[in-house]
Every structure is written in structure tokens, then in C-alpha cells.
């Protein structure tokens, strides 16, 4: 039997068709995704259009790894725009093509500036002044290609920005605000007004079996794509490895799809191999990377 690459790999798969067809074989190109428990011995491929093709494992004739499609700078900019609106802190301000976010100093994401349209270093100086006035270090979230950093610039917390098409699968209760039970499972000291903040969009909070929680924000990119960003996912230690995180995320994305979202993203710290494995099984692939840098190191 032909050996297959790991889940999340983009492949070209040749497989045998039923004998009563005009063609004995055909090909499909897409990412290997994790089949459901009741799918049997199949290989599940998700195409670029979002279609799911199931191939019986024994019908696979050949497989080769296909390089990822190149991501355009404009696509990074559109996604980062939507993501910034989905986690804007309790105060935000546009400075030219930058979005400056302040969230009481809690979480780097809610207290960093995003250079969606960088033009000059004078903007970085203004960013530093804006955060200095609020008693915070001037932290910049620097996505690939949107802000080119000198090789010697120290960076921190490199994130993988992973994306997928939304394929609705199951529903869970989703509320507009996190209640005490949700916050008890989350266990991070993030103010509720930081968690619920969103610009020109909707935010929802899901809880499953009293043991798993997560957040989803639906916002729109400048190109009109409605994105769903999943974050704040946590499962109680006593309930891990039972599939709750995946069921929770599927439910959050179904809720987002009902509100017009067609694409989804997660932002995962590079070292978090567990979270990355979960999202790869759900069909997420790396879109681009981002990291944090201090404004003073660029001035």
C-alpha cells in the first residue's frame, strides 16, 4: 500500500475509478485532511475550492507532494486587516496604514500595532509615542512582507497564521459574552471587555460539556472576504484527548458561517505543536508568519 504524507500536506493524488467508468483513473489536488471517525479506511482530500474528495485507501495509485500555492502580499494584507479588527483591544486608532491597539496591557495581540500599509520610519516613531503616552512598550506585530525587518532585529513569539475554508459541521451554543463558567475554564486573566472587543463585526463564545471553551470573531477584509478568527481555545486538563477541541472549533465555525464567514484563520505560536496538529487535522494550512518586534529596535 502506498505511503501517504501527513495530514495537512498538499498533494496530487492519482486513484482508481470504478470499473464501469470511461476512465480507469483520475487525479485530485488538495490538502490531506483528517477523515471523520465513521469515514472508514479513506483518504480525504480538500481541494482549493473547498470540495471534499474521499478516496478509498486501497484505490490510491500514486501520490506526490505539491508545493503550496504562493501567497500574494495583498492576500496577507487583507487577512491581517480582518484579524486586527477581530482583536482590537479596548482602544484602537488608525495612523495612516497602521492600526494601533491598546487593551490595558493584557495580551500582546491586543497591545500592538499592525503595519497594514507601511510607508516610512516616521510612522514607527509616532507608534512609539502613542504607546509611550499610555505607559506601554511600543510593540509591533510584523507579518511577512508587510514590514521588512533587518536581519539583526530581535523578534519574539513567531506566530503561524493558518487558514482554511469553512465547511459547517455541527452546532454548539454560542453567546455574545463569556459567562463565569467560560472564564473559569479559560483561566487567563484577560478582561471581559478585551475579549468581547471587535470592530465592524461579531464575536461569539462557545462552551462544550463544561470543559472546553473558545472564541470566534467574524470581520470583513478590504477585499470583501468575511473571515472567522478562532482564538482563546482551552480544554480542561481532565477532558483532553477526547476530541472536544475539534468539536468546539467546528461549532464556532458553523456559527461564523451562519453570519457570512467563508474563510477562517487561527494564529498559533510556532512552538505550540499540539495546537498546530489540531488545526492541521481540521484542514488548516500555513498562510504566512508574523512576529513581534519593539519599535525602539527599529528606530
TrEMBL record:
Q: Which residues form the N-acetyltransferase domain?
A: 161-299
Superkingdom in the source lineage: Bacteria
Gene3D superfamilies referenced in this protein's UniProt entry, alphabetically: 3.40.630.30
InterPro entries noted in UniProt? Acyl_CoA_acyltransferase, Bact_Acetyltransf, GNAT_dom, Rv0428c-like_C, SH3_Rv0428c
Keyword Amino-acid biosynthesis belongs to the record: no
Q: Which Pfam families match?
A: Rv0428c_C, SH3_Rv0428c
Keywords attached to this entry: Acyltransferase, Transferase
GO MF terms listed in the record are: acyltransferase activity, transferring groups other than amino-acyl groups
Give the coiled coil ranges.
Answer: none
Name-wise, this protein is Acetyltransferase [Rhodococcus jostii RHA1]
Q: Where does this protein come from, organism-wise?
A: Mycolicibacterium parafortuitum
Amino acid at each position: 500500500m502506498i505511503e501517504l504524507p501527513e495530514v495537512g500536506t498538499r498533494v496530487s493524488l492519482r486513484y482508481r475509478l470504478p470499473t464501469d467508468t470511461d476512465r480507469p483513473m483520475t487525479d485530485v489536488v488538495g490538502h490531506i485532511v483528517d477523515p471523520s471517525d465513521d469515514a472508514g479506511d479513506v483518504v480525504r482530500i480538500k481541494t482549493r475550492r473547498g470540495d471534499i474528495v474521499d478516496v478509498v485507501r486501497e484505490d490510491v495509485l500514486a501520490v506526490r507532494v505539491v508545493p503550496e500555492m504562493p501567497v500574494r502580499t495583498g492576500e496577507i494584507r487583507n487577512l491581517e486587516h480582518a484579524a486586527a479588527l477581530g482583536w482590537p483591544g479596548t482602544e484602537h486608532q488608525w495612523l495612516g496604514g497602521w492600526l494601533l491597539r491598546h487593551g490595558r496591557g493584557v495580551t500582546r495581540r491586543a497591545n500592538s500595532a499592525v503595519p497594514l500599509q507601511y510607508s516610512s520610519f516616521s510612522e514607527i516613531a509616532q507608534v512609539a509615542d502613542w504607546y509611550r503616552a499610555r505607559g506601554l512598550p511600543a510593540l509591533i506585530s510584523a507579518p511577512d512582507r508587510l514590514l521588512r525587518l533587518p536581519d539583526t532585529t530581535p523578534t519574539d513569539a513567531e506566530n503561524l497564521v493558518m487558514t482554511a475554508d469553512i465547511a459547517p459541521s455541527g452546532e454548539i451554543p454560542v453567546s455574545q459574552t463569556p459567562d463565569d463558567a467560560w472564564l473559569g475554564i479559560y483561566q487567563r486573566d484577560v478582561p471581559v471587555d478585551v475579549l468581547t472587543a471587535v470592530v465592524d463585526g461579531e464575536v461569539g463564545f462557545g462552551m462544550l460539556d463544561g470543559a472546553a471553551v473558545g472564541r470566534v470573531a467574524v470581520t470583513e477584509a478590504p477585499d470583501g472576504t468575511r473571515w472567522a478568527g478562532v482564538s482563546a481555545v482551552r480544554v480542561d486538563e481532565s477532558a483532553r484527548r477526547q476530541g472536544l477541541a475539534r468539536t468546539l472549533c467546528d461549532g464556532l465555525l458553523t456559527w461564523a458561517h451562519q453570519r457570512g464567514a467563508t474563510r477562517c484563520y487561527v494564529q498559533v505560536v510556532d512552538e505550540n505543536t499540539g495546537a498546530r496538529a489540531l488545526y492541521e487535522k481540521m484542514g488548516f494550512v500555513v498562510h504566512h508568519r508574523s512576529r513581534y518586534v519593539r519599535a525602539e529596535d527599529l528606530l
